[in-house]
Amino acid sequence: MLIGFALAYLMNKKFKGNDLWTTIIVLPMMLSPAVVGNFWKFLYRPQIGLFNNIFAFFTDKDPSSIEMLGSVDLAPWSIVIVDTWMWTPFVTLICLVRAHSAATGVGPASASAGRADSTSRNSGGTVRSVRNADIESPPTTTAPNPR
Prior knowledge:
By secondary structure, the chain is an all-alpha fold. The chain has a single domain, classed as MetI-like fold, CATH 1.10.3720. It contains six helices and no strands. Helix 1 packs parallel to helix 5 (75-104) and helix 2 packs across helix 5 (75-104). The termini are far apart.
């Protein structure tokens, strides 16, 4: 949650490329879990996985000596990394929407369904109320009795 809040705080500031970074940050949440699983399974592969090669670079050990998904100690951390990567954008969006609503003055008191939905008012003649309209039911016909 802290990562999502921090990203929302940074994205709330307007800067050049803000829309691009917003898309990049939200992208993991839009992907299918099956695609995400295959992507991360590839990253965790013992021989050619990115994490193992980074680990080998910093520790001077063989990249295939560690199995992120095969180790009882590392598998839960692997899942935490994937889950964090996939669902942090959701928290970011929730915090970002709240920050935007606070900046525009739309809060819980003024965002009731009656105010947000303008169908009960005649807003420029485009939407009219049908609350008191008389609606007739279609005529019913009865089939003759075959007996």
